[in-house]
Amino acid sequence: MNFTDVLRAAGAPVADDYRAGLAAAKTAHARQILCIDPRRLEGSIDLDACFAAVPEHRRENRWDYGIGYRTTAGEHRAVWVEVHPASTSQVRVVLAKLKWLQRRINAWGVPAQRLSSQRDASHRPYVWLATPGRISIYANTRTARCLRSAGLDLPSRTCRIP
């Protein structure tokens, strides 16, 4: 299944909020997401806005975006992007958002899990994009190890989709 099929199968509220390309991302955020071949983008969804309308999720820490794409080998994958200030004081919030996202992905079933499960040199399923300002989380620290153990790399200024 591709990204669009997974979202449609997931049902409300995500089934109807899928957008072509990076159209679901705010303009400033879309500029931080770089794709070598935009024709391979399957689409995007603004999860935060989508779930903000659902009463039981309004007060939760929600992840920002999901983006589906095809690899050069034709495999379907998803990258999940959180745009957030990159300071050590925000790590706990971002990790709570990641857990929220992982619960959603698990609830959407095996196809969604497959899109998000592969992690290799060219694909990181979960990305923390730093907002403008200083990045104050450093490699080889306890905080960095905590992020890596949760499946996140250090925050970066861009997300590169291969």
Describe the structure.
Strands 2-3-4-5 form a four-stranded mixed beta sheet. Strands 1-6 form a two-stranded parallel ribbon. The protein has six helices and six strands. It has one domain (3-161). With 162 residues, it is an alpha/beta fold. 32% of the residues lie in helices and 20% in strands. The model has no long low-confidence stretch (mean pLDDT 93).
Provide a compact summary of the structure:
The chain has 162 residues and is α/β, with parallel strands linked by helices. Helices cover 32% and strands 20% of the residues.
Short key terms for the protein model shown above:
162 residues; alpha/beta; four-stranded mixed beta sheet; two-stranded parallel ribbon; 6 strands; globular
Question: Could you outline the blueprint of secondary structure elements for this entry?
Answer:
Layout lengths: L2 H8 L16 H4 L2 E3 L5 E6 H6 L12 E6 L5 E9 L6 H18 L1 H8 L8 E5 L11 H8 L9 E3 L1
Parallel strand pairs: 1-6, 4-5
Antiparallel strand pairs: 2-3, 3-4
